[in-house]
Design goal:
With about 500 residues, the protein is α/β, with parallel strands linked by helices. The protein folds into three domains: about 90 residues, no CATH class; about 140 residues, 3-Layer(aba) Sandwich (Rossmann fold); about 240 residues, no CATH class. The chain contains 18 helices and 26 strands. The strands form six sheets. It has a seven-stranded mixed sheet with strand order 9-8-7-10-11-13-12. A seven-stranded mixed sheet has the order 16-15-14-17-22-19-25, with helices on both faces. The chain has a six-stranded mixed sheet with strand order 4-3-2-1-5-6. Helix 13 packs across helix 15. The radius of gyration is 30 Å and the shape is elongated. The two termini are about 60 Å apart.
Length: about 500
């Protein structure tokens, strides 16, 4: 990260000043002379001319960021003569309070005011924890939800400082799947570092509020690079400006795939929905739906994996910004319905609205008096097959994703589940889940298909009610993944279509 080097005006001896501040990086850009004016009053001179309060403010708005006094008595005299200014400190206080950026109470209130002005009533991420670097101990009454990213703080947060934030993210993994109305950046950054930060947070928000110092390299780069952004608005402040940077974001492209293996008998789907025929490569009949057997696909494994072959096809062959997978007999709805009503299927607009607030939509949690292995036994009646399958899947999970073993054990031996693996989410979350799932599920399936026998019978020779055993485990893996990751989950009821 670029080192912030504050520009300061110095009142006092340069050698003494260096002894006071130690090895802190500082650029002295000018010398201010102090003179007693009687009765503890003070006069300041710069370049041979007496400074007024207005003149001093002008110097501390671009040419320098601080006026520092070596002598605390001279500083005291200044405070009794000139208007209050939080940029004017003793060298000793500056040395002890100095952090890695230019911050003042004025900047705190200006950014909060700007966020209100720009109608940010949602969630804002303080990516550099700049609010925590100010002398605030309790949360300010913002009109928006403020979260903090502690990894960029550069030190340990005092517990009381956490009151400033609704939520503290300790690592990037904790917030990487979330979405925010805006991200606040305030650290000193080179243009390259700034662009790297924008790239790293690209999926988090389409808007950035960045404080950029006047006459900095980054300021020049912003001016020269405006065309790469959708819009850049400057809000002038002391020693720099807040920039509202709006990225060029692709328009929302939502498709919820309705997986089926038979004629779904639904004349029309709402906007944003599309049927996909799972196991199309093995199908005896074509119903005119999109098949999962083109491009990069595992359609031939549908005998073992059920709807997971459609999930794989969507992952490998589409680029929608928002994507989901549901079943031809199960549709999300905003409110519980006693009977199926196609007009009550969750609309595209409602999905996009929810995914602006939450990270993923899943079915309401399923609670039963038996754990997941017992439920699979009820479905199959094959304890040996379940035991072998669970052993093979756990082995491949341990090899490919060892950090998930605890979550896997908690779910597979637990009594609650987001059933059927149906979900709707943003693309980066969808891709991350699929990358994780298929990193071990395919190898486990192939081993079970090629090597495992129950008695003398191969898995591929068993009736589908048994051969789909991996599919039973696969539908529980979304709950495993969600157990481990930090997502804001929205649960909704599902309408069930009977007799289809």
């Amino acid at each position: 990260m670029a080192t912030y080097v504050p520009r300061v005006l110095l009142c006092g001896d340069a050698e003494e000043f260096r002894k006071i501040i130690g090895d802190k990086p500082v650029e002295v850009v000018g010398q201010v002379e102090f003179a007693w004016a009687g009765d503890d009053a003070a006069k300041l001179f710069f370049d041979g001319h007496e400074l007024t309060g207005e003149g001093l403010n002008q110097l501390l708005d671009g040419a320098a960021e601080y006026l520092l006094f070596n002598d605390p008595l001279e500083h005291k005299a200044y405070l009794e003569t000139y208007p209050m200014n939080t940029q004017i400190l003793t060298a000793d206080v500056f040395a002890k309070k100095f952090r890695d950026g230019f911050f003042s109470l004025e900047l705190l209130y200006s950014i909060s005011g700007l966020l209100v002005q720009e109608n940010f009533s949602g969630r804002v991420l303080d990516f550099d924890c700049c609010f925590a670097k100010l002398d605030c101990r309790a949360r300010i009454n913002f009109n928006f939800a403020l979260d903090g990213f502690a990894e960029n703080f550069g030190g340990e947060l005092f517990p009381i400082t956490e009151n400033l934030y609704g939520k503290i993210y300790r690592t990037f993994d904790e917030c990487r799947y979330h979405i925010f109305d805006a991200i606040v950046l305030a650290k000193e950054r080179t243009p390259e570092e700034f662009m790297n930060t924008l790239a790293a947070t690209d999926a988090l928000s389409g808007k950035i509020f960045a404080f950029i110092r006047r006459y900095s390299v980054l300021e020049n780069w912003i001016y020269a690079s405006k065309d790469i952004f959708a819009h850049v608005t400057r809000f002038n402040e002391r020693n720099g400006a807040w920039y509202l940077i709006e990225k060029k974001m692709p328009p929302a492209d939502l498709i919820v795939y309705v997986v089926t293996h038979k004629d779904a008998q639904l004349p029309a789907l709402p906007e944003g929905y599309r049927f996909i025929h799972a196991g199309h490569a093995l199908a005896a009949q074509d119903f005119g739906y999109l098949g999962d057997d083109t491009g990069d696909n595992i359609s031939a494994l549908n005998h073992y994996l059920d709807e997971a072959t459609a999930l794989y096809w969507i992952w490998k062959n589409t680029k929608h910004t928002h994507v989901g997978l549901i079943h031809y007999r199960r549709f999300f709805t905003a409110e519980a319905q006693e009977t199926f009503d196609a007009t009550k299927i969750l609309s595209k607009d409602e999905i996009l609205r929810l995914l602006g607030e939450y990270d993923i939509i899943v079915q309401e949690e399923y609670l039963r008096e038996r754990n997941q292995l017992e439920l699979i036994l009820i479905s199959t009646g094959q304890p040996d097959l379940i035991r072998i399958t669970e052993m093979v899947i756990r082995k491949h999970l341990a090899k490919a994703q060892p950090d998930y073993l605890d979550a896997y054990d908690a779910v597979i031996n637990g009594f609650t589940l987001f059933i059927c693996g149906i979900h709707i989410t943003r693309r980066n979350i969808f891709d991350a889940y699929c990358q994780w799932l298929f990193s071990f599920l395919l190898d486990a399936t192939i081993e079970l298909r090629d090597k495992i026998r129950v008695g003398d019978i191969k898995l591929e020779e068993m009736p589908h009610v048994y051969s789909r055993i991996v599919g039973h485990f696969a539908e529980r893996m979304l709950t495993v993944w969600l157990t481990k990751n930090h997502l804001r989950i929205k649960t909704l009821p599902v309408m069930y279509r009977e007799n289809v």
